């Protein structure tokens, strides 16, 4: 260690001071210790384990060089070392990295770049850990100080710009942790360099950009609390203690927060002065204007970050902000009207283009700054809203011609309208706040302050109101400017429409997405804000503009594009316009005649581009507003849309597909609403309790005639529209499949297949007459999907079996399809899977038995469940749904599905998707394919055991409530936990896999009761170990964990029912007292009355009765075999008696449950699901179901009495812990009277604590 420190002595001057201190510290430590480990301990503190080897520059350099090696083993080993170092940087590591970065002449730039990236990551992950991780970096404070200083020095002197950028990001990571407490002068240091006239321009610009990066990084700043270091003897001084420590910590954190705000406030004016000077120099084309522009940009960005770091809302603008914003207003005004800048005439055209480009980028940064002021300082900024509206509305949007606006960069165009939209949406600038009456209870100072704030806000509110008023003179011109300069199609887009229609259609779809941040959707968004805020005036301005464009004769290209843009805005904002525009009338008078008259042109390909633009927009309007059409109008509109799928103009055809999809999806929404209503009102067999009857009566009173009328209207609407679909289905499907032959891009194909999928879903069994069209087309679609695979694969790999025996060829061999795009391939296959899943789900065996459809299903399943491709990794989840739907549709497993079993084995081994794999295995077993699964028996057993072990670990972890001990830092300080760590969450995926494992094990026990106990013995032991785990409390268990244990106990109960001798083996090797804990948990869960059961939820009541029945039957077997001595413990025995009596009381209702199961119809109730039918069959033959439970209970009670000393002893024991009614029922059962019922309260009947509620189990 000492030798290492001495070897660094010849470093740059910024290293020497720290190195001397480190050497002295190490030598002092060495006098009292005898080795390197002790020296490390002296440097790091007693709480940190020693480092085996000190870092050297040569060691780190060699490792970085290895990370860039072409040799795989060398590279992997080096990367492993680097990741370890990054995760917890040791003393000397960061210094070594910076020493490598410093060697500008002797070390290659790529190695130095990697070194600084590693340093950046190491600081970001372990510089000073926050409370969320409860860890502490091993970097000594002295080394941290050196790294901070060296980072700034290296950043300024680095010749390579990309390395300087990474060094700036390293400084940003440091600032997140150490500013302001440990680095209070960091911002001032950067500002001093940026403002120094003596520093080279490159260094000044780097310092300014670094300041911006640091400020942006501080937005994620977290303040770390440290506990005071305790005295050496461990005794606290007078008055000290936990409360004193907390007060001191609170003061410390508040002081650092105040320092943080003060340091940021100190920066605003200097940064503002730098911005003003450089912006003015750039605007006047002073010498070096190409340097002043990026300086002004970085300063404006820094000002934006400073404004955004303020709390929202803030009452006053930072000092100097009004002056800075005023300079920005003047600068943007000058940059908007360049004809007033005479200095531009003195530079060359090339320089002018460069200057204008820089001016535009500077405007973007200034607009972001203005928006930040509006967002975070809404009230004080309100007085400046008027001049900025004048700038953006009158001097930019309205005054500039469309060509000039479109020539701007997209970010600048977005900024122009975003400011206006944010002003309209700001709650402080709305009449609801600015003009509302003041609360009467306000104290005079508060009232005066609020009045002053509202008077400021009224200035902005009035300015916005004038802008939106037709009488103000700006509303109509602004609406026209937005539509012409943002919404209307550009000449370049028309050219793309003509030359590459699919690309154009895709770009329009992207702009329609929720995350679109381009000029057109932002412009439409502004218009929607205006419609919402301005009301009828904005509506009239929009409609008058549309009428004017429609009346233009003869129509020009400009008027056609404006008309199309107006129609788009009307459709986008129809919720605001519907009170003025009746869509049915508009459709009848304009849209329908236009679509019908021009349809022949589009089918023949004789249309012009202007006609295509209007036709596509009319079709789009039907998709957006078509739900407003009623009766025959809707049917006619849908037929027109379907007919346009055959248009020779692909954009029009694809628009027709999208509109058809929207109209069809609306039917599906109505169907879903009807299904929910039917399910909610379906009569439930059995006798509901009083609470259920009251709830049903209340619901019926609330619904009344109004709901019945709505449901009747919805049913009639759905029936009419589905009938219309039936009439046009052949044309629709034919149009979809014919269009696929013309498409090249995968996204276009996916859109068409989505429509086919939704059509199948909506039509249901009514699709049967058209199944021939689907069967004929699906093999061609599969061949097309196969042709888009990035790399051809053999059938043996499970990737692309489409060519085997299909005899089909892809639709198109055109170049240009995204064959290398894995995401596109996945989306295409995903769309095909969705079509087949819906088709099989609706037609069941009819679809699967069709040879053409089957010729796609099984190869597609083979491809999408193979683990050898990137595509299958993304498709496997959707493939499971198709797999499950297909196997449920057949009475037996076909050979093609048996051929998929090797994939099932690979999936089991991987263990990632077993929550979906286990039900599929269950289906194979239920349909009689057990022999085919025999080769997978070991994999099945291993996977089930792993699922049980995983859930056990997760449940124990989620139930642990012990807080961790705060770790200590190198200087003896420890992190104060803000709150003790409570139970950690149990992931739904882990719980779902465990429940699926329990269901599979239960089925295996029922189908193969002789073989399963031995095959799954380790799985059963794992289940039992969870139930009997000593770390699990009887109360306070996670609800998902409780559900899992309930499922496990059902499986174990079935196991013990026929094999009571296995009880001891289940608990063998578990900690002492496992049997008692197992019984306690079993009795607790079996006896629980869940809230849903108490409220009369039929399904939950049935499950509760079955749970109690199987538990008491299994316990009867244990008592009969005398294999569970703990069951005779007095309180447990009383709980067994109580549970047994409840099972007798449940008997009549249980019989009603079974009658309901027997009445289920295969077609209507089971939806022709053979797996569900087979599961119901084994349920009907379940010995638990057919058991004579009253007689079983009578024998159980007699055996219990015999084992503990007679019936009198049993009666006396029960009498001590239960009510007299329980004792009476016990006497009746012992005498052979088992046909009795009792409606008494459960708590009175069974005594406190004998029948816990679910809430008691969870609380």
TrEMBL record:
<dbReference type="InterPro" id="IPR058669">
    <property type="entry name" value="TPR_IPO7/11-like"/>
</dbReference>
<dbReference type="GO" id="GO:0006606">
    <property type="term" value="P:protein import into nucleus"/>
</dbReference>
<dbReference type="GO" id="GO:0031267">
    <property type="term" value="F:small GTPase binding"/>
</dbReference>
<feature type="domain" description="Importin N-terminal">
    <location>
        <begin position="78"/>
        <end position="157"/>
    </location>
</feature>
<dbReference type="GO" id="GO:0005635">
    <property type="term" value="C:nuclear envelope"/>
</dbReference>
<dbReference type="InterPro" id="IPR016024">
    <property type="entry name" value="ARM-type_fold"/>
</dbReference>
<comment type="similarity">
    <text>Belongs to the importin beta family.</text>
</comment>
<feature type="compositionally biased region" description="Low complexity">
    <location>
        <begin position="955"/>
        <end position="969"/>
    </location>
</feature>
<feature type="compositionally biased region" description="Low complexity">
    <location>
        <begin position="796"/>
        <end position="816"/>
    </location>
</feature>
<keyword id="KW-0813">Transport</keyword>
<dbReference type="Pfam" id="PF03810">
    <property type="entry name" value="IBN_N"/>
</dbReference>
<dbReference type="Pfam" id="PF25758">
    <property type="entry name" value="TPR_IPO11"/>
</dbReference>
<feature type="region of interest" description="Disordered">
    <location>
        <begin position="793"/>
        <end position="818"/>
    </location>
</feature>
<feature type="region of interest" description="Disordered">
    <location>
        <begin position="955"/>
        <end position="987"/>
    </location>
</feature>
<dbReference type="InterPro" id="IPR001494">
    <property type="entry name" value="Importin-beta_N"/>
</dbReference>
<protein>
    <recommendedName>
        <fullName>Importin N-terminal domain-containing protein</fullName>
    </recommendedName>
</protein>
<keyword id="KW-0539">Nucleus</keyword>
<dbReference type="GO" id="GO:0005829">
    <property type="term" value="C:cytosol"/>
</dbReference>
<dbReference type="InterPro" id="IPR011989">
    <property type="entry name" value="ARM-like"/>
</dbReference>
